[in-house]
Design goal:
single chain; alpha/beta; Rossmann fold; Helicase, Ruva Protein, domain 3; two-stranded antiparallel sheet; binds S-adenosylmethionine
Length: 276
């Protein structure tokens, strides 16, 4: 079941050789099936002629698939120094194609690392998946430095990202995601695919950036969604009181008796644009 995408050793051997016992604190759940990592990499669209930014390559299962799919170069940011020798082996196998950055993806500036159009592909560490995603979604300037994102999340987070108004899962993450991208769930991955298996099902989400989203200052949209969904059961005229309440809603032409979960992305943008 390890797949035949290159002549490198099976990932199970790599884990044994470098004694890579997964650490929970780093959100480590490794994928060892190279058929599955190839399937994830293929969701991103063609990789020839692209730089790929990968967060958390770990022992390198997804990295190997991205390189085998023909990416021009992979820039892989890994926080766990124990993984670096395994990644160096991949770099030796694909000379000049893998740049390994030892560090924290949350504090990385990406745009300057890139030489050509870029895609983001990652099996994200669950503990920092949402802050990483929001950081990319709120990138300035827009269109941003990436032309697609193909990311693995907990299924519950994937459903929040893709949720539509009126549903329970619809919230701040849906609006920030759907303002600037078209996200869709490509497929689910069960716990057994990972070492160690997590308790939950995961999903791969593909985000296609929208070139001309409704004009809005990202920080204002963040603020209004945060306040509105902070009290999602309340009517908007009450939940948005600190931002102007009924006066703000009247200016926007939005019924103050509605709840946050009933507003479209465009209506949130209208509210954000009316903030000082
Ligand atoms: N890509 C590998 C795979 O699919 O098997 C590993 C995925 S594992 C879910 C997440 C990886 O992200 C781990 O290798 C972990 O060490 C790394 N990681 C955790 N926090 C990180 C951070 N802040 N910056 C960069 N890498 C991080």
């Amino acid at each position: 079941m390890s797949g035949q995408i290159d002549d490198m050793p099976p990932l199970r051997d790599v884990l044994d050789r470098y004694d890579l016992l997964a650490k929970k604190s780093l959100g480590q759940n490794f994928l060892l099936d190279l058929n599955l990592t190839a399937k994830i990499a293929r969701q991103a669209g063609p990789l020839a002629g692209y730089d790929v930014v990968e967060i958390g390559p770990g022992p390198g299962g997804l990295t190997r698939a991205i390189l085998a799919e023909g990416a021009e170069r992979v820039i892989a940011i890994e926080r766990d120094a124990r993984c670096l020798p395994a990644l160096q082996e991949i770099s030796d196998y694909y000379p000049g194609k893998l740049q390994i950055i030892s560090g924290d993806a949350l504090s990385e500036q990406y745009a300057h690392l890139l030489a050509r159009p870029a895609r983001i592909i990652a099996n994200l560490p669950y503990n920092v998946a949402t802050p990483l995603l929001t950081g990319w979604l709120l990138s300035e300037p827009w269109p941003a430095w990436f032309s697609s994102m193909t990311l693995m999340f907990q299924k519950e987070v994937a459903e929040r990202i893709c949720a539509t108004p009126g549903s329970k899962a619809y919230g701040r993450l849906s609006i920030l995601s759907q303002w600037r991208t078209r996200p869709h769930i490509a497929f689910d991955v069960g716990p057994k695919a990972f070492i160690p298996p997590p308790k939950i099902t995961s999903s791969v989400v593909v985000f296609e950036p929208i070139e001309n989203p409704f004009p809005c200052v990202a920080k204002k949209l963040e603020r209004v969604t945060q306040v509105a969904f902070g009290q999602r059961r309340k009517m908007l005229r009450a939940s948005l009181k600190s931002l102007g309440g009924s006066a703000l809603l009247d200016k926007a032409g939005i019924d103050g008796e509605k709840r946050a979960e009933n507003l479209s992305v465009e209506e949130f943008v209208t509210l954000a644009n009316l903030l000082d």
